[in-house]
Specification:
The protein has about 230 residues and is mostly helical. The protein contains ten helices and no strands. The chain is flat and about 95 Å long. The C terminus is likely disordered.
C-alpha cells in the first residue's frame, strides 16, 4: 500500500472519528438540556403501562364476577327473593350492560298479560336507555307496543333496525285509525317505503292505508247524510 493511500485512509478514519465525536457531543448536550423532561417521559410511560395493566386486570376480574352472578341467577330456580335481589344489585353495579341483558331476557319468559303488568313495564322502561343500543332498541319497541305509547311508536329510531321502525310506525297508524284520526294515520303509513327486508310490513301498510281511504270516504258520506237529514227535518 502506498504512502498516499495510507494517508487517505488515515484521513478518512480521522474524519469518521470526528463525526462520531461531534454526534456524541451533540447527544450529550441534548441529554443535559432535556434530562428532566426525558425522565418525566420515561416515568409517565412506566406509570401508563402499570395503569393499563391494572385496568385490564380489573376489567377481567369484574367480567368474571359478573358472569358468576349471571350463572347463579340463571341456574338457581328456587332462589328466594332476597337473595335474587342481592345478586341483581351486585350485577347492576359490576356490569350495567350485562344486567340490562339479564332484565330483558328474564322479561321475555313472561306471558303477554304478565309483561303488561306495571312492575314489568317499569322494568322494560328502565332499560330503554341502556348503553347497549340493541337492548335499548328492543326494550323501547316492546314497551311502546304493549303500552300503546303513540309518541314512542311514531318517533321510533331506525338507528338499529329500520324494520322495527316500520313496525312501530305501522302500529302508531293503527292506533290513530282506532281514534278516528285517519288523515294522520295515512301520513304515517305513507312514510313506510318498500325495501328488501320489510315487504310484509309494507304490504300491511298499503292495505291499512286503503282501508283508511274507504273509512274516510264513509265518514264523509255519513256526515253528508246527517246534514241532509237535518235539513229535511227543518
Amino acid at each position: 500500500m502506498s504512502l498516499k493511500d495510507n494517508l487517505n485512509d488515515a484521513k478518512s478514519k480521522l474524519s469518521s472519528d470526528q463525526t462520531l465525536l461531534i454526534s456524541a457531543f451533540r447527544l450529550e448536550s441534548f441529554y443535559r438540556k432535556y434530562k428532566i423532561l426525558i425522565y418525566i417521559i420515561i416515568v409517565l410511560a412506566i406509570l401508563f403501562g402499570i395503569y393499563k395493566g391494572y385496568e385490564h386486570y380489573m376489567d377481567s376480574k369484574m367480567r368474571q364476577e359478573s358472569e358468576a352472578i349471571m350463572n347463579e341467577l340463571y341456574s338457581v330456580r328456587l332462589i328466594d327473593d332476597k337473595k335474587r335481589s342481592e345478586l341483581e344489585s351486585k350485577l347492576e353495579k359490576s356490569n350495567p350492560v350485562l344486567y340490562d341483558f339479564y332484565v330483558y331476557t328474564t322479561l321475555q319468559k313472561l306471558s303477554l298479560p304478565e309483561l303488561g303488568e306495571k312492575k314489568n313495564l317499569d322494568k322494560l322502561h328502565s332499560i330503554m336507555d341502556s348503553k347497549n343500543k340493541l337492548i335499548a332498541t328492543l326494550a323501547t319497541y316492546q314497551y311502546a307496543t304493549i303500552s300503546e305509547n303513540l309518541d314512542l311508536l311514531e318517533n321510533f329510531s331506525d338507528e338499529v333496525s329500520k324494520l322495527l321502525r316500520d313496525k312501530a310506525r305501522y302500529q302508531a297508524a293503527y292506533l290513530y285509525m282506532q281514534k278516528g284520526e285517519v288523515k294522520r294515520a295515512r301520513e304515517i303509513l305513507s312514510s313506510i317505503t318498500l325495501r328488501d327486508d320489510n315487504q310484509d310490513v309494507y304490504n300491511m301498510a298499503v292495505r291499512l292505508r286503503h282501508y283508511g281511504v274507504a273509512l274516510e270516504s264513509d265518514t264523509k258520506d255519513s256526515i253528508k247524510d246527517s246534514a241532509e237529514s237535518a235539513g229535511d227535518s227543518k
